[in-house]
Amino acid sequence: MRQPMVLRLHASGIPIDWLTLEEAAVLMSRACEGGVVWSDGEAAYRLHGGTSSLTGRQSFIDIPEVIGVSPPVHAMLAFEHTGFNRVLCKYREGLCCAYCGVTVTRQALTIDHILPRSRGGRLSMLNAVACCQRCNSLKGNRTPEEAGMALLLKPFVPTMAEVLYMTRPKTMTTRQLWYLKCQFRNASLRAYLTQALAA
């Protein structure tokens, strides 16, 4: 079974990333920049340490589901995912082909430039979609309009909250979801985000 993860947010509530229990424990012990300012879901997980030679008792620390941290003063916060990410593009499409809608494994999905690379199309989250090998070959070096293949999914640049939802651990809690879905901007473009908002 995969270990549960802790959702790390900026103290203001902006999602940053997922942490292992060990990484969260390290942050909880800091009293400086980057340390925990607030938490939610107190004592959600218990992490055990060593055994005291004096008392014979095992040490432990209780880890919350969500932590808010104060990153270094000059740290930049990412409100949106910047740049292109092949794996994230596939998850953004819900592991479906953007042209025919068939569900495909992540490994079998390919990346298609909407405006072909040979015609000046850049590799970006707005000019790339995940699609099956058949549709990618069929479209070839044409635009969707030229190939008569309408896009079923509109490309978008995801917010960090949406990125963290797409790459969520299997053991994500209701409380963690609440912090993420408050910042879903593209829910109308993807069924799985709309369903998360309804949860």
Structural class given helices, strands, pairing? alpha+beta
Largest sheet: 4 strands, mixed
Oligomer: single chain
* Uncertain residue ranges: none
Query: What's the tally of helices?
Result: 7
Radius of gyration: 21 Å
Total beta strands = 8
First-to-last CA distance: 24 Å
Average pLDDT reading: 91
Q: What is the H/E order? A: EEHEEEEHEEHHHHH
From the spread of the alpha carbons, the general shape counts as elongated
| Beta-strand fraction estimate | 15-25%
Strand order of the largest sheet: 2-1-6-3
Helix content: 10-25%
Notable features of this structure?
single chain, 199 residues, alpha+beta, elongated
Describe this structure in words.
By secondary structure, this protein is an alpha+beta fold. The protein has seven helices and eight strands, in the order E-E-H-E-E-E-E-H-E-E-H-H-H-H-H. A four-stranded mixed sheet has the order 2-1-6-3. A two-stranded antiparallel sheet has the order 4-5. The chain has a two-stranded antiparallel sheet with strand order 7-8. A hairpin with a 6-residue loop joins strand 4 and strand 5.
